[in-house]
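As promised in the previous annual report, we have extended the structural survey to additional targets. Below is the entry for Putative flavoprotein involved in K+ transport.
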Amino acid sequence: MSLHKLDHRRTTVAIVGGGQAGLSTSWFLTRDGVDHVVLEAKTLGHEWRDRRWDNFTLVTPNWHCRLPGYAYDGPEPDGFMGRDEIVAWLSGYAPTFDPPVVEHTAVTRLTEREGGGFVLTTSGPDGEETWEAEHVVLATGGYHLPIVPSWASALDPSITQLQSADYRNDDQLPEGAVLVVGSGQSGAQIAEDLHLAGRQVHLALGDAPRVARFHRGRDCMTWLADMGLYDTPVAQYPGGVAAREKTNHYVTGRDGGRDIDLRQFALEGMRLYGLLDGGRDGALSFRPTLTAALDGADAVYNSICRDIDRHIEAQGIDAPAGAPYEPVWVPESEPTSLDLAAEGVTSVVWAIGYRPDYRWVQVGVFDGTGRPTHTRGVTSVPGLYFLGLPWLHTWGSGRFHGIARDAEHVATAITGAFDRVAAG
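The corresponding structure token record, generated without further manual editing, is:
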């Protein structure tokens, strides 16, 4: 792929972010002949390479990997690509349509231009520059700043602290036990990775749900796709847009895919706790929520399986029998404290999650928590759009599965704006 040499700093559409969301938007604009540029702070798709651990795998089947004009066509559609395979697959996308990309160019400020349109201030190899655009698509995702308790700095400085995005493998951590904080997809899988590497793992659970990897002879996420769950607009889910705040279900694609059963890990020696509540020096405290967290996750697991059972029955599908999950271990008590030194804990991996950081976007499209307000990526400010956010429109929006549909919607909104101007 040749990166276009742009001798001007004015464009019709500026796309901020060169991941799958930004590139998908570029594909539609390229198809429609719309002048645009993709501004990428680092390199195309770098987050898949730089923010995933060595044994990372997709939790969705490979057949979910589809972008506009480009889909997984390898030998294992029902398998789960590892990190390096994902990087290789995604790196093959841009050469198929040669998007106008400017890499190593970070957008540091976005403001509205007097009279309409936007001004983007960038920082790159040539220093600070200014771009002007009639439309801007913000495709930087929603995971910018790691969530860490304010008291984390009060822990013993001899304890190594690491964010989930910076974890690669157990070799990078000092010898000793590891505390993983958070049981969402990253936390549960990192805890598993360390457990399989032979580390003594202590895991502080949140309220993340879980899902079966396989049920009734097929991958659960394939069943859910058939049932239309990834295509249902967020407003149609119970609680409506509140679904955007839900934690994703934990499961793994490792070794061909399997459940993550924290109760089984406990039988094998992993130490489980409820919600981490506080800490100082080497003493941590936990809320007595372990039993509730495990029971809640299992309840969601079985509920999803029952939904699949009903779908199978309603459609008259011939599928092997299934069975609900039965707990293989239950806590004898609720642990509420942990002495790091006494238990030999030498490192902490924070996997609580991330929050968005749009301080550089100086346009009034955010709610009181700093999250963008939009309808399927289209904001109330003419010409400003978001893409690639979890639950932007459907459950599939933050995944490869649904990005093409969202990108096409935003691209159509942009070209429709041209038509309205011409008609006016």
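The two ends are 39 Å apart (CA to CA). The chain has a mean pLDDT of 93. These points will be discussed at the next consortium meeting with the crystallography subgroup.
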